[in-house]
Amino acid sequence: MIAFVFIQVRLPTKITYSVKYIWGVPVKKTFRIYNIMYQQRMRRFTDAPVLPISISAVHVVEDYMVPKKQYPHQQGQGLYLFRRFLAASVPVAIVAIPVTSHAATPAPSARSAVPAHIARHQANGGQRSTSRPEELRVTSTARQRNFLQAMTVNTLSRDEIRNLNINSPKDIAAFVPGVASANATSGSTPTFSIRGIGLEDYSGANMSGTGIYFDGHLAPFPVFYSGQLLDLQEVNVEKGPQGFDYGRSTTGGAINMVSVQPSAKKEGYIDWGYSSYNTNTGKLAWNVPISSKVYNRVAFSYTKGDGWQHDVHTNQRYGAQDTLALRNLTKILVSPDDTVTLNLHYSRDVGTPVSPQNTNADATVWGSKPGTYGIAPNSPANAVNVGAFAPRRRENGGGVSVNYSHKFDNATFESVTSIDFMRRNINDNYDGEAKSVGDFVWDDTYISESHDMRFSSSVGNLYRYTVGLYQSYDKISANYVNDEQDLFDSPLGTINSHFKQQNISAGIYVNNIINITKSLEFIASGRFSYDIRDFKGGTIDTGGFVTGTPGSYLSYLDESQAYHRFTGKVGLRYRITPNILVYGTISNGYKAGTYFSAPVTASQGLDYIKPEGVLAYEVGAKAQLFHHRLELSGSLFDYEYRNRQTLVVANMPGNTISLTLASLPRARSRGGELQAVWHSPIPHLDLQAGFAYLDAQTLSSMSNLNGLSLLSPVSSHTQLPYAPRFSWDGVARYTVNVSPRYHVALQVSYSWKARFWSSLSDPNARLGQMSSLGARMTFAPRNDKWQASVYVENAADKHTDVMSFTTNDNSRVQYIQTPRWVGCDLRYNF
Fold first, then answer.
1. How many CA atoms within 13 Å lie on the side-chain side of 183?
2. How far is CA 606 from CA 204, 598, 713, in A?
3. Which of 43, 102, 326, 361 is the most exposed place for a label (fewest CB within 10 A)?
4. How confident is the model at residue 652 (pLDDT cuts 50, 70, 90)?
């Protein structure tokens, strides 16, 4: 016998239960359908037949029936009434008692016929059909899945990624409201911020408050996502504290990059492009079904081009590209219920880094003619002055991940295991001068291992849940050299940071969704996180100029910090209609503590930075109108920070300055976002637009860091870094048929962000307004067998400073926006 025990709660205090056998023809045939489903489940554990008898506290009406649209052989809308009653009951026990007799279960009559997928199950002797038609009915696009979530999720599709020339993770920020990104060094440290929360550290050994995921596995450090993007199916940007249904706990959100998965269809494409500064790009994707149960997809991308910057004295070019990315996905259908996907990936970058500009060091520091060591204020946007220093990049790494999933009748188990390695050696003209004032050599090795497993299930239409376990281990071995020989006027003026850092993270999470009524859901989630940070090393006075003893430590730490935190989320989601919903959530997020790892001459600049926390409030609405042709979403949010990890500039011994990390006691970020996608407002026209308003400011003042005075005191109500007050973007694409066989697609895109800061306490860290106008024209046959495109990016040739800061000699350094870029590409689909 199978027994189902339900407890029914009738507010305010009365709790009742009842046990009854099911009699009556209309009710009996309804429950027999569900009892057969439970029979299937129990036969996985025993060969004995199961007597379909139910125990229930649900009070049903006599005329209750199954809806026609779900089971064509029935009539009426009674199932909706059943769901409303069922929503007030919570199952507390499920008991299966085998029946000793092996008599076959009587076949159902025509009046009580079961759904076809259950009949197939019985005909197969309890083994489920491999066709899984019931799964096809719930298949939806990424936007449809994200529409149902009680949070803001922005999606870029496969076509949008290609048509907008999104080739690196940093490019995503231009077309997602409320997201800002920049390269904190000469290209190898992309930083992201979502609604003012992210990463400002430029050293590469810190983790972001925004989680970056590739096919489900976390890329913990910027070096793991500084390369190319290739063959992506979609990019999903989830905003607000995360970590309640997968991955690591984050305070700002998560960016999920999903590759095109292997399939049973033999297909692919080859793409070649040529663009400004003699840049050639080749891309390939090839999907091959090896057998009926093994599919393979390989993707390849290679870019090589000349640099767009030139040295005003040597005419040497900088910013040259030479990047390679390779990925192989193998999907194995072990059984109808078990799937294994093996992901092998590799990336390499041996290009020449871009160099920043320094326009005031000659006049304010050296008293020389403009352009002697820096560049003149009226120099062209691509002019730099590097001198004898030789910038270079040597980055390569890769890894393997294994995704496993098992599907039960009403549940799914998923596991994601990955390990990645990265090695980099970069010479960075970080001071923007021909002198050695703040040149860096970044030499480090990364190892990152993680495992995330979760179990998701549901109880009818009442209750859905996910419970999971996350674990990761990261290790960095590094030697960062800061060449300041000309600043100290001594060949001994070099310091370097030599350290090893290990991070261990673990977390247990649960996400519950309870249907209070047919239209109202209650969300209750929780997470326990535990983190250990080990740091051993410090800054060495290599030449002995500062201490008089070569090789002595200027700062040193050998310690371990452990911390744990409970975080949670509660919320409501209400569907006004099937295509309009509203939601409200309250959540808190947590980011582990960290260390600043770049060279500093004072031990106070190396101290442990406390964990970061945020309390987030959000309300929003989503709508899909005109048969899903118009998609609207909007949200209002208010974040309260505690101990925000932020980059500051501090005065160091020896009359020098240095960037370092600090913990800002209190800050606040609030604002709103809107996004609209409109397919075919008129035939063949697609429109997309996004807008964000962000008021992110400090609530605490700060004038020193552990006794070190800041270059510029931070007062309360100062704008937070990477938090532009306004930003918006728009894309319009129109397709016109030029003949019965061919069509032309015309696209215009634009993005704009208001001025913002790259760090606190630095008067030179204010950036300009960032904008970019793009256009693309594609000519193709009606079946899109091949495509020929021409495009332009930054058509107005804007030269905004996209990153700026104060270097060691108190002069201003700036990185300039990539100039106008014109190109063409050809694609053949096979």
1. 24
2. 15, 9, 20
3. 102
4. confident
Q: Are 560 and 539 in contact (CB under 8 A)?
A: no
Asked if 50 and 43 touch (Cβ cutoff 8 Å), the reply is yes
Q: How many residues does the chain have?
A: 830
Helix (H), strand (E) at residue 161? helix 158-163
Spatial distance between the Cα atoms of 333 and 477, rounded to a whole number of angstroms: 39
12 CB contacts (<8 Å, ≥6 apart)? none
- Taking the alpha carbons of 290, 292, 298, 299 in that order, is the dihedral positive or negative? positive
Which residue has better confidence, 140 or 818? 818
Phi, psi of 134 (to 5 degrees): -65, -25
Report the interhelical angle of 78-86 vs 25-42 (nearest 10°): 60
Instruction: Determine the Cα–Cα distance for residues 725 and 195; give it in Å rounded to an integer.
Output: 10
Judged by DSSP in three states, 40 sits in: helix
d(CA 231, CA 300): 8
Give the residue from 534, 542, 449, 472 showing the smallest Cα distance to 500: 534
Contact 780, 788 (CB under 8 A): yes
Q: Strand, coil or helix: what is 725?
A: coil
3-state helix, strand, coil in the chain (%, to 5): 10, 55, 35
Distance separating alpha carbons of residues 426 and 354, to the nearest angstrom = 11
Please give the single-letter amino acid code of residue 179: V
- Residue 448 has a CB neighbour count (10 Å cut-off) of 24
Digit-coded pLDDT (tens) for 709-729: 999 999 999 999 999 999 999
The kind and range of the H/E element at 252 are: none
CA 111, 116, 120, 121 dihedral sign is negative
CA 336-262-216 angle, 5° bins: 85
Nearest Cα to 460, choosing from 86, 146, 775, 132? 86
Identify the DSSP state of 777: E
Please tell me the distance from the alpha carbon of residue 656 to that of residue 431, in angstroms, as a whole number: 14
> What would the two tokens of residue 740 be?
């019965």
**Torsion sign over Cα 759, 760, 762, 766:** positive
Give the dihedral of Cα atoms 481, 485, 490, 496; nearest 10 deg.
-10
* Mean pLDDT of the region 424-452: 94
Rounded Cα–Cα distance for residues 228 and 687 (Å): 27
Please state whether the predicted TM-score (pTM) of the whole model is above 0.85.
no
The per-residue pLDDT for range 385-413, each reduced to its tens digit, is 998 888 999 999 999 999 999 999 999 99
pLDDT of residue 228: 78
Q: How many angstroms separate the Cα of 96 from the Cα of each of 23, 48, 51?
A: 21, 11, 9
Asked if 717 and 696 touch (Cβ cutoff 8 Å), the reply is: no
Share of the chain above pLDDT 70, in %: 83
- In DSSP terms, which residues pair with 538 in a beta bridge? 498, 556
Integer angstrom CA distances of residue 320 from 81, 182, 351: 66, 18, 5
**What's the pLDDT tens digit per position in 114-172?**
333 333 333 333 333 333 333 333 334 667 788 899 999 999 999 999 999 999 888 99
